[in-house]
Automatic annotation (TrEMBL):
Superkingdom in the source lineage: Bacteria
NCBIfam families attached to this UniProt entry: rsmG_gidB
Protein name: Ribosomal RNA small subunit methyltransferase G
EC number(s) from the headed UniProt entry: 2.1.1.-
Keywords attached to this entry: Cytoplasm, Methyltransferase, rRNA processing, S-adenosyl-L-methionine, Transferase
Subcellular location: Cytoplasm
Residues holding S-adenosyl-L-methionine: 74, 79, 125-126, 144
Gene name of the record: rsmG
Taxon lineage: Bacteria, Bacillati, Bacillota, Negativicutes, Veillonellales
Amino acid sequence: MTACEMMEALGLPANEEAARKLTEYNAMVIAMSKKVNLTGIKDVDESLIKNVYDSLTVYDPKYFPAKGRVLDLGTGAGFPGVPLAILRPDMQFLLVDSIQKKLTFIEDACADLGIKNVKCLHIRAEEGGRRRKTREAFDVVTARAVKAMPIIAEWSLPFVAVGGVFAAMKGPGADEEMKTAGRILRELHGTLEEKKELTLPGGDRRTILYIRKTAPCPKTYPRKVGIAEKKPVLGE
Ligand SMILES: C[S@@+](CC[C@H](N)C(=O)[O-])C[C@H]1O[C@@H](n2cnc3c(N)ncnc32)[C@H](O)[C@@H]1O
C-alpha cells in the first residue's frame, strides 16, 4: 500500500505533498531504528501500516478544530503526532516524551521535511500537566500505546482544555481497561463520548476512546512523578 492509497482508504482528501512527507518520515524512522531503539518495527511497509496508517486512524475533523492545538503524549518516534501534523499544517503540535534522543530525531526529521508545525518538549507527563503554559491548553491530547487507561487518563486530562478531547489509542483490551478507569475519569471530569473500533490492513484490531473534558481538573492532579504508575486510581 502506498501513502496515497492509505489516505484514500482512510477517507482523507488526496494530497500528494502530505503523502510524500508521510512516506519519507516513515523511511527516516525505519533507517534510524536500525541505529537506535525508536520503534520495534524494522520494515518500511509494515511501519507504514502499523505506525503511519494507525496514527491517522485517530483523525476525525470534528475533534480537530481549525488552527487548534494538539499535544501528543509519549510520542516516541513521533506517532501519532507527526502524521497528524503532516495532515493538518494549520494546527500546532506539541510532542512530549521523557526521552530526549527520540525528540532530537523528530526535530531533525521535521526540519529536513519542512514540517513547521511541530515542537517537541522533553518533560515527564506528570510535570508538564502541572505547568501553567501547558495545563488545560490543548484542544486535543493523543496518546498511543503509552500506559493503561487509569494512568494515561491521569497524565493526559490535565493538559486538555475544558471542552477539548483526550483521544486514547488502544488495542482490543480497551473495554477491560475502561472498567478500571471510571473513577479517575469522573475525578478529572472526563466523559467517554465515542468508542471507535477498527481493523488495520493486515488484521490487527484497534479501539480509540474519545474522552471529552467537561470541567477543570482538580489541582491535585496529576500527582507527583511516578505516583500514578505506583498507585493508580482504580475503580468503575
Ligand atoms: C511504547 S512507547 C509509544 C510511543 C508512540 N506513542 C507510539 O505509539 O509509537 C511509550 C512512550 O512513552 C514515553 N513515556 C513513558 N512515560 C512517560 C512519562 N511519564 N512522560 C512522558 N513520556 C513518557 C516513553 O519514553 C515512550 O517513548
